[in-house]
Amino acid sequence: MPEDEDDILPQLADDQPAANFAPALYLIATPIGAARDITLRALDLLKGCEILVAEDTRSLRRLMEIHGIALNGRKVLAYHDHNGAQMRPRLLAALQQGKSVLYASEAGTPLVADPGFQLARSVISEGLSVIAAPGPSAMLAALTVAGLPSDRFCFMGFAPAQAGARRKFLEEAAKIPATLIFYESPKRVHRFLIELCEILGKDRDAALCRELTKKHEEIVRMPLGDMAESLSDRTLRGEIVLVVDRGEKQVADQQTLDEALKIALDQMRLKDAVAQVATELDLPRRQVYQAALALDKGQQE
Questions:
Q1: What share of the chain is helix, strand, coil (3-state, %, to 5)?
Q2: Is the domain of 46 the same as that of 114?
Q3: What is the pLDDT of residues 166-185, one digit of tens each?
């Protein structure tokens, strides 16, 4: 077991001030690039929490050094996908003993495509407190600068690695009436753009946001087809967030509605036929009911 995980409860130095925070799991957001994006509240928590936990201990130590926050005898404990099962019981025990525990993601907001989800879920299941200290988020930063509708959006995270699962994932995403936000590796983004064109359509507007808040920040805004072509010969590096506009809702015309109703009415009673067709065509049930009555009246005349 790594050295910094030997003792979950730190032996505090004599000059370390008493903790200023009530027993709880504090989830702090950390900068995705610019170190000054850290919030004042997050800095206070880094100073005052008794137990510090991070997805990447080196990154958190470096962040604390930049902002002049001393460890004062505390260790920074690692918590990630590979050791979570072993660390969760120890952190829960510390919370039950009245300790304040801070968890920091590698970058951005904890629990968003992040191993902290299982930790927070375990703490909540034990009836213990979980408190968020909001701050930087690559997802929200990308949505802010994308120039695409933000009134309704869906965070999709990383697409599955397997081709079949990825295709199903994108086919389901294509039906969501909201702006879509994806995370993707620079090594796979070219393939991903081609697949998005095939399944979502080449004409959907999109914004590829790379290295947000960092020195080489870049935002490419254009339809998916143009983007795939424009970036095909470029080697991209860094963190990438892809924001894709919602698709236009396809409204069924009257002929389509009537044909669907005829088939449904041959197989079931009126009420059930209306419910089925309304769901299939994504139409208001009242509209489908009126169309069914008109269709029935026309057949009787």
A1: 45, 15, 40
A2: yes
A3: 999 999 999 898 999 999 99
